Amino acid sequence: MLIDTHCHLDAAEFDADRDEVHAAALAAGVERFVVPAVALANFPAVKTCVARHAGCAAAYGIHPLYVMQAAEGDLAELRNWLQAERPLAVGEIGLDYYVAGIDPVRQEYFYVEQLKLAREFALPVVLHVRRSIDTILKHLRRIAVPGGIAHAFNGSRQQAEEFIKLGFKLGFGGAMSYSGSSRIRQLAATLPLHSIVLETDAPDIPPVWLDRGRNSPAELPRLAAVLAELRGLPVETVIHQTGENARAALPGLLA
Questions:
Q1: 61 and 114 in contact (C-beta within 8 Å)?
Q2: Separation between Cα atoms, residue 222 and residue 131, nearest integer Å
Q3: Of the candidates 121, 5, 125, which has an alpha carbon nearest to the alpha carbon of residue 55?
Q4: Is 65's pLDDT higher than 70?
């Protein structure tokens, strides 16, 4: 089963043609879509999006790049949403030490508090891990959650193995289509296949063939083909196994 484990279908970039984008992805063979929220303000848009579009499931969380605009009361509101909606996961949460001007202490506070909510509700997490993997892992070892996905993984082999030990899957998408992304391509080629899930991060992280244009979930089959080529496997094998992996990481996809 083709599952896009990270797709911001609610994003403003899709306002003009969201139904068409979703229909094109279905026609391309994508059967499930994980739509993570990024801030309290977009929770209603995510809810509306997944209700309208077949195969879509929501995750609710406060993204690290949005913590500067968030109020502490947003965490209580997130708890209310988790209780009322029973989403697929808590996400997109985590840390981003790449973008300047986002207080790392505030990021860490929101990350830790959301891990605690995930533990409370026994939900997996969808993690943003850019330039922050060691700190991400430090708190995962301390606050046990039922696994999840390290989205857009770009760390080391050792870090990948630590996520796998903790029961996480690793998300690979457009970045592995670039010949210059040697470390990501090497990981995609050699990590255990049972540890990998596919994602687009649409409308972001466009694959090389889009020439920096808007990404969409309809690109997922071609990303599956890239992974299959890197691993020397039939694309059908990659599609089947990554789908099984996604459903293991996010059991709500089985519903």
A1: yes
A2: 27
A3: 5
A4: yes
* Secondary structure string (H, E, C) spanning 216-229: CHHHHHHHHHHHHH
Count of all residues that appear for the chain in the document? 255
Q: Provide the b/e sequence for 217-241 (b: ≥16 CB within 10 Å).
A: bbbbbebbebbbebbeeeeeebbeb
Q: Which CATH class is domain 2-254?
A: alpha beta
Question: Can you say whether the dihedral through the CA atoms of 146, 175, 182, 222 is positive or negative?
Answer: positive
- Has residue 185 got a pLDDT over 70? yes
- What is the layout of strands, in order, in the sheet containing 148-151? 2-4, 30-36, 56-60, 89-94, 125-128, 148-151, 168-172, 196-198
The partner residues of 89 in beta bridges, in order of sequence, read 59
pLDDT in tens, 113-163: 999 999 999 999 999 999 999 999 999 999 999 999 999 999 999 999 999
Q: What is the 3-state secondary structure (H, E, C) of the chain?
A: CEEECCECCCCHHHCCCHHHHHHHHHHHCEEEEEEECCCHHHHHHHHHHHHHCCCEEEEECCCHHHCCCCCCHHHHHHHHHHHHHCCCEEEEEECCCCCCCCCHHHHHHHHHHHHHHHHHHCCCEEEECCCCHHHHHHHHHHCCCCCEEEECCCCCHHHHHHHHHCCEEEEECHHHHCCCCHHHHHHHHHCCHHHEEECCCECCCCCHHHCCCCCCHHHHHHHHHHHHHHHCCCHHHHHHHHHHHHHHHCHHHHC
